[in-house]
Amino acid sequence: MSIIPKVVPVALTLLVTQVVVALVTAGKVDQRPPQLPASRSCFSFEASFATDFTSMPAPIDAAWKVHGACFDGQWYMTVDSPEERWPCIACDGVRVFRCAANALLIDPLSQRAVPMQLWSIAALLQLGSELYGERSAGGTTRWTCTQGGATIACIDADTNVAQYMYEWRNDKGELQNRITHAIERDVGGPFYRGGTEEIFSEDASQQRVRSSWSQMLIEGEVRVGETRLGKSFVSHAWSYGPEGRPVGGGEPPLRVTRTGRLESCSTLEQAEFGRKMGSLTSLSRGMEVLDRTRSAVLRFVVGDSFVVFDGVGYQCSTALHALPTDLELVQLLRTATLLDPSAQSKQRSAHASPFVRPLSSQATSGVSVSVPAPVLALGLAIEPGRTLDLGMVQFGETPTQRDASFHLRNTTDHARVIKSVRASCGCMKTKASLTTIAPGATATIATTLTVERSKTYHSSIWVVFEDGQIEELKVVAVGVPENAVRATAFKADSTGDVLTIVLYSSSGKPEGEVNIPLGAESTIASDSGWQPIGAASDAKHWIRDIVRKP
Prior knowledge:
This protein is mostly beta strands and 550 residues long. β2 (43-52) and β3 form a beta hairpin. The longest helix has 12 residues, at 270-281. The model is unreliable at 1-29, 134-149, 349-354 and 356-372 (pLDDT under 50).
């Protein structure tokens, strides 16, 4: 059995949490929802979608098309929508690649990494979590939840459709969310027929009320090769909105209707699928890459030796031509030179980055924010764009608050009234400087993000106008605790197995020791101790090699 030492510097705790999802069973009935199979056939498709905000004073319709191909958990798609900044998107089953112009953004596969326009396609293509990567210890499954379990609500003997219900509750045991999936258990494999979602909140009397719910129904089916696809779907959503129950009681009005239709699908040669996937996921010289799949965010230009790691700029001894492995990244950092803030700024300007630029005078070294081109929405100019990427945000024993602002300029000849501004989570606070935007005037949507966890934050701000227009603004940040491990690598050589650790520390040389498992001290051949990357007194990253005897 190999011995791996534990790294425990001061203020650092590496927690490996195993989430076990309990599925409730009763009698002889198997209550576990079946997994939707990955697309066993290689096929291309085209689908169209439409959304009607029915209950708004002035209904606004939105329509878009999606075309692409799927095969065995891999897919690529193009969104034909004027609002989608990253029209080409692909997934290799683990990572999501978003392509635009000469830039490539790489995220770990998750629902947050996939544009909203693609969520609806999962129901038609029967992809389940193959589209946005929910995973459990038992493998890929669309029906994973982190609290509670699944129970069969009912089974229709005629159609062989079972309804699987999930409930999420808070620490007080109060119901927060309920989801029901209707799945046909057929000889040809499980088939998703639709479902409902209910969200509960508290009213003034502290009674539990249903604040919103939605329903989806898959109509018909199409077969392509060995795969069954949904032919069309219709979904409805109702909501009480921020005002609570409707005046006089009763049910709230229908808020949104969304429809989707599979226009065409056909089998595709796997070789052709592979060529297209390669064109969307490969790197080319001059392309700027933002890799968010690691513990630390890595940004570089293909063919250049300047890299930004954890928001800190380094000049490497060799250029990057591909995504580096952990071991290759460690080797690059060993010989890298730490750049001062002015040199980093010059490098960023030279690259004319579509991703990041330094913040205003309030910024500290290494902190950056993405600057998409101004977005022209319906009657609005949104600056600097719909998404702000704050890069790496460090926090310590107390949370760090980071401010960001969006500017909405009224491009119409009449006043625009903001009905509400709400954030998607408690970590984000937001408010608008104006509720009525005169023609040509600008309202500032000020946000404050509280960072207190080691994770990537994806927070949305919903700006609802009185005429029914809804704009979603997003803030992205990577939370990094001080003295946090940012990379590890293992290498076997003649001296023994080498464990290399890269640590982030803004307060000088890290304190603390490397804890070796009891009785294993004799297996350690050498320990380099913490060495500053770039050999700089103000180093932000520190590297350490621990060698185990062969």
